Amino acid sequence: AEARLSRHDEPLNIPVDKEFPMTAKMRPTTPAQPSSGDQPDSLLGSLQAEVSAEASPFLMFLTGHARAIAVGIALSIVVIAGYWVYSSQADKARFEETLAYGKILVISDPKARLEQLRAFVDTAPASVKKSVWFSIMDAASELKDYDTLYTAWNTISGFDEGIRVLAVVGMSDALSVQNKDKEALEALETVADKLKPNEITMVNARIVLLAENIGEYSRAMSACDTLISKSSDPKDMRMWMQKRAVLEQKSGKAQ
To answer: Residue 102: pLDDT band by 50, 70, 90 thresholds?
Structure first.
């Protein structure tokens, strides 16, 4: 037993190359480590060490222009940050201006409110400027300040083509109430041929009355003819036919 144990204790001298042949390709090898001078100092450097220039020209471009690209990114961040600051300041300014407008609107005295609106309108932001002029119009109407009322409607007429006819009617009414019927009629005639169906009666009925007031009977009868032809209500049609007959009599007497 001791002899057997001693034999097992002896080292086995088995010629590895003969009994278990291993080629150079099969032998495990430790990859060569770059020397301290070749150690990459960045992610791009690591990629450059692993990928040849022929295999990745784009990588070579990034590596060669890394500093310029970094500067470009930094500048972009500065521009975005600057725009954000500007946008925040602009939003704050608009909010403060809108808040100032709201404080004016709650003034109960129409005269004081109109004065504040007049002082505010020139610096009002574009988003509320039209509303400010409507507020001026409302305060002026309450005070029967027809010159300011006319100015407000005249300004409003230039904001939006869709409300131009309504604004011109407002201008005409502000003139008429001051006994300026001729000017009021002339204002209406600037839009008389550009009317939508729902504006025909509003404008032509005023033309009839204004033209009659200044003795322009033919012009008044022409407006009556328009109202008769466009009327869908038999009662309205008869009313304008009767009005036309009265105007025709006045016209004959005037001649």
So the answer is: confident
